[in-house]
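Entry under discussion copied across for reference:
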Amino acid sequence: MNYILRIIKKSFLWSYARNTWQWDVLCVVILIFIFLSPKSWFANGGRRVQAGHQTQVVSTVILGPEVIDNEKDRVQIEERVRALTGRTNAQVVDVRPRRDKDGKTVGYEVDIR
C-alpha cells in the first residue's frame, strides 16, 4: 500500500528525471492528447452566446473609431462589418467601445454571428 501511495505522490508532484521510463510515458501521453483530441476543442470560433434555446458561436471584430460614426447605429455597423469581412450574412450581436487610459475611444469590439 505504501508503494502505491509513493507512486501516486511522485506522479502528482512529478519527481521523475528526464531519462526515466516514466518521463517517456508522460511524453507519449501528451502526444496522444495532442493528436487525438478533437479539432473543435482548439478552434478559434469565438465565444458562444445563449440565444433563447440555441447556442450560437460569435466572432469578434476590432474596428477603428474612424470606421464607425455612431456606435448605436447597428445598421451602419453591420454594413461596415459585411464590407470588411466579406461575410454577407454577418449580424451584429454586441458593440463595446475600447478606451485608452484617458477614456478616449480608440476602437470598437464588434461581436458578429
